[in-house]
Amino acid sequence: MGPTASGKTEVAIELCRHFPLDVISVDSALVYRGMDIGTAKPDAATLRATPHRLIDIRDPEDSYSAGEFVRDAREAMGAIFESGRTPLLVGGTMMYFRSLTAGMAELPAADAGIRAAVDADAAERGWPALHEELGTVDPAAAQRINPNDSQRIQRALEVYRLSGRPLSAWQQTTTAEGDIRFEKLALRVEPRSLLHERIAMRLDRMLGAGFLDEVRRLMQRPGLHRDSPAMRSVGYRQVWAHLAGECSFEEARSRALAATRQLAKRQITWLRSEKALKSFDALDSRVADAISGSLAALDD
After folding, report:
1. CA distance 41 to 31
2. Pairwise CA distance, residues 141 & 81, whole Å
3. Minimal CA–CA distance to 271: which of 72, 15, 4?
4. 198-243 per-position pLDDT tens digit
């Protein structure tokens, strides 16, 4: 685990050279086909050398939930265990990690009609207004959810309208399968200013590698729009706005940089709440060796 731009993929590949590990991606954006540059998806050569499961399993028009991830991850883990190897879960979508390791609530199934009604309300009133509505029916959920986080606001209101019960109440009861032991490892980048530098450098590499052209191609897909779950990924929404003529390139870059920094902040906050977490310095040139030593000690 680790914040964005902390070098998780590189360390994972190095660990796979030392141990019989197979990688499972834990990233809500890497599941989408055609979203390669803006997600920092490993290139084809890397994926041939070190295959990653749960990458490129959805079209960007589709949604993908934490519940689907848990199902898919457990299926992949079972196959890896059966082959005599060990799963290495790598990514930065902390909700996926938490749902897999700690369990998740059995929530009501999605309802297309109610989602459409919520979206229609948002189109008329705006997501901040719906966030205020959520605050009246589920204050605990509203406190956790950003007023502009349309996906989570939509789901929280959907659950309430479906069941008459707040999402936060549903989440108080979780179910988890205790048949797997998870060893939690995290990369840290300190001070925070160095992480911000890495984020800016990576964003500029993406822009130089054709990120704008990638979003142009995505905008041409008939079933894809800016409010699709895939386009809520950091960077994509901001570039879309620029290509739609709503802001300059410089403003889009600035917004994408700010959004990525906010993502990293949220990821770090999640990591601080994780129990039994072993943390390693991502900037140490021998970080993979330090993690390897920690893993080797588990067998002693």
Report:
1. 10
2. 37
3. 4
4. 999 999 999 999 999 999 999 999 999 988 989 999 999 999 999 9
Residues paired with residue 279 on neighbouring β-strands, in sequence order? 186
Mean pLDDT of the chain: 92
Let me know: does 150 contact 126? Beta carbons within 8 Å.
no
The whole model's pTM is what? 0.82
CA 13/CA 3 separation, integer angstroms: 17
For residue 191, whether the previous peptide bond is cis, meaning omega lies within 30 degrees of 0, is: yes
The ranges assigned to domains in the chain are 8-104+178-297, 112-170
Q: Class of the 112-170 domain?
A: mainly alpha
Superfamily assignment of 8-104+178-297 in CATH? P-loop containing nucleotide triphosphate hydrolases (3.40.50.300)
What CA–CA distances, in Å, run from 123 to 81, 89, 119, 236, 269? 47, 37, 6, 20, 31
Find where tokens 């197979």 sit.
22
